[in-house]
Amino acid sequence: MARIETQCAQTLPHSEARQRAEEFARRMAEQFGLAWRWRGDVLCFAAHSGVARGIHGELAIGADDVRVTLQVPLLLRLLSRTLGEKAGALLRTTFDPDSGGV
To answer: What CATH number is associated with residue 47?
Structure first.
């Protein structure tokens, strides 16, 4: 598996950060067909079908940052760079709309 990691600084109150994490998850679900659920302060997601099948990862909310980790199957490793760029841009626009991300 290829591993993709991206992070974004954030200073939001915890409840707002969770709401934005869910917005991120919904947008990733629309783009890549990912299902998601909360496990504490970690939002876990996975693609069980479609072109992104086998991709899974998590979004972890920290006190001053948000981190996304994606695990990409070797068969999809050619998409790793594109997925990483899209996830990073989406993360920045979700948590810092003034960043000019996506």
So the answer is: 3.30.310.80
Those residues whose C-beta lies under 8 Å from the C-beta of residue 40, and which sit 6 or more positions away, are none
**How many domains are there within the chain?**
1
pLDDT by residue for the chain (102 residues), tens only, comes to 889 899 999 999 999 999 999 999 999 888 888 899 999 989 999 998 887 888 899 999 998 999 999 998 877 776 677 777 888 888 888 887 665 544
Range of the domain at 72: 2-95
